[in-house]
Amino acid sequence: MPVLIQRVLAAAAFALALLIGVWLSNKFPRESAARVQVLRAGERDADSARAKLAQDRAELEHGDDAYVGHLAQLAATWGLPAPTRAELEAPLVHAVELVDAVALQPGAAWTGTHVRVTAVVERVTYKHQGVTVAANHTIARVENIGTVPVAYLVRASSAERGRCEVRGSRMHNANALRPGEVADMVLCAGSGSVRLEHVEVLEVSEFQQRLLSQVSPRALGADDITAGAHQPIEAVEPCIGMNAQTLAAMVRDGTTTWADVADYFARHDCHRDAMPGGYTRVRPPADAAG
Q1: What is the pTM of this model?
Q2: Rounded to a whole number, what is the largest CA-CA distance in the chain?
Q3: Cβ count within 10 A of residue 118
Q4: Which residues make Cβ contacts (< 8 Å) with residue 145, sequence separation at least 6?
Q5: Residue 134: CA atoms inside 13 Å, Cβ hemisphere, count?
Q6: Other C-beta atoms within 10 Å of 23: how many?
Q7: CB atoms within 10 A of CB 255
Q8: 51-102: per-residue pLDDT in tens?
Q9: Mean pLDDT value of segment 122-149
């Protein structure tokens, strides 16, 4: 073989060996780094799985303690005493105070044991089709006249015009009132009487009043205008993602009741707990037996 060809082949072999060496020198670190990433990812997944398992076991073994502890922390953020287990489990006083509808002329009032409802006609400013309008409205003014906070359900409408889809609103706590607190339920644009149809209450504690104030009024059966006017006096964080429409539909079709929903959220934080299907309010032993 000519010397020149031998030299060319030797040079080519040397260049090929050099390229292979460079490729291998880079290949091993790449594979090593990839293996490290895989191992680290596996470790993270394992750590996550272990943490989730520990959390699940803790909730299974200490679920009640976690529940009470969470509510105690929530009470502390509101500057209220921590509720005891006995308080959280105790039946709430429930009363249906009005079943047969009554008509209230402007200025007239109906008084129950826990709340007073007064028919009022006052000007309310609202927007209709992009235009700001100030007009007289028929209002049901609900006042807690008792000595304890109450969750309340007041169904009312305009005696002359029924349920009005277009109307203004006034900000109020649409779910629960403290003693002396007032809620203006705006019923209809125009002057007229109030048709008071139903009044129902649950006696609650100061802490439970705050719990209920977080809940979307839609979950308790309120319409969109009333829900949009919900504004508790005390600072609470509303529960945005809760299944309010589902609960409202269940109340409408009789699957559950307003009292059941109010009772549940007087005992649970709606940011953390969803009302399970089939839940019914806690009743005194005599009522439960009946």
Answers
A1: 0.76
A2: 123
A3: 19
A4: 111, 114, 115, 116, 179
A5: 2
A6: 10
A7: 13
A8: 434 443 444 344 578 899 999 999 999 999 999 999 999 999 999 999 999 9
A9: 91
